[in-house]
Amino acid sequence: MTVFNRHAVRQHRDRAAGALAAHDFLFRETADRLADRLTDVNRRFDLGLDLGCHGGELADTVQARERIGRFVQCDLSPAMAALARSHGGQATIAADEEALPFAPASFDVVVSNLSLHWVNDLPGALKQVLTTLKPDGLFLAAMLGGQTLRELRDALTRAEAEIEGGLSQRVSPLAEVRDAGALLQRAGFALPVADRETITVSYGDPLRLMTDLRAMGESNAVLSKRPTLTRRSTLFRAAEIYIDDYGDAAGRVDATFEVIFMTAWAPHPDQQQPLPRGSARHRLADAIDGTEYGPGEEGPTGG
């Protein structure tokens, strides 16, 4: 299924590259959290890939921790790749996450910071990442989840229905954390783990949030979006709804960013393996000091 216009995604990033440093706060925050998770892994990686590098925020953060020897940076946007070139990557190229140009078993670690939520075929992209990893190589990624910008979604939906009498897709569809682990497993990764964190950003004006999203290269790139610009009256009404329903006493509003973190490994024979089904030596009921019921038997509450 093709949901996103990848050409538009590249254009948005190209346009944003020139002034990204003034608006890259979210990329830097998640890069720092990814670096913390990488530091928790008791290993040093010789060669790493920054998949979707934006302005090089991840290279700045990760290389300061001295966990990766050499770091290759790539981004769909040539302008972003050029911007990132000055941020510590020994090699920086423009490359598409949906068609990776790297040889199999090239990297010891692949890290991706807030880029994969723009990929149409996420299972296919994850399989390509797995192919580029050496056996027992690490994949670590952060991507935006389904609760991201829930306040803005609500305000825009209600304002458009009120002013224009209809609805259009204003904000991109995003993955849910419950699906992320299954996607990693489906792609063939070992030991997949997915969890979520919420980052809340305070704004004095909802319109400033919309400006930041555009300046970050995160404008809507859904193929089905309306071809015309949003009416000014709709935007201003959305801002009013946002402030009325989500503002505090001082008139400031919060913007929610749900970040899904994914961790997984390329399979290797020496990795820890799950026990075969039926091999347990102790009952779960014993561990929780409960009573075990057989098929067809009802517990004290009928369950």
Please characterize this protein's 3D structure.
By secondary structure, the chain is α/β, with parallel strands linked by helices. It contains ten helices and seven strands. The protein has helices at 6-16, 25-40, 57-64, 78-84, 122-132, 150-164, 177-187, 206-215, 232-246, 284-287, and strands at residues 45-51, 68-75, 91-94, 107-113, 133-144, 190-203, 253-265. The longest helix has 16 residues, at 25-40. The radius of gyration is 22 Å and the shape is globular.
CATH architecture: 3-Layer(aba) Sandwich
Tell me the strand order in the biggest sheet: 3-2-1-4-5-7-6
Sum up the overall morphology in one term. Answer: globular
| Rg, Å, rounded | 22 Å
- Which percent bin holds the helix content? 25-40%
Please report the total strand number as a whole number: 7
Tell me about the biggest sheet?
Answer: 7 strands, mixed
pLDDT average, as an integer?
87
Which topology does CATH recognise?
Rossmann fold
- How many distinct helices? 10
The structural domain count equals: 1
How far is the N terminus from the C terminus? 40 Å
CATH H-level name... which superfamily?
Answer: Vaccinia Virus protein VP39
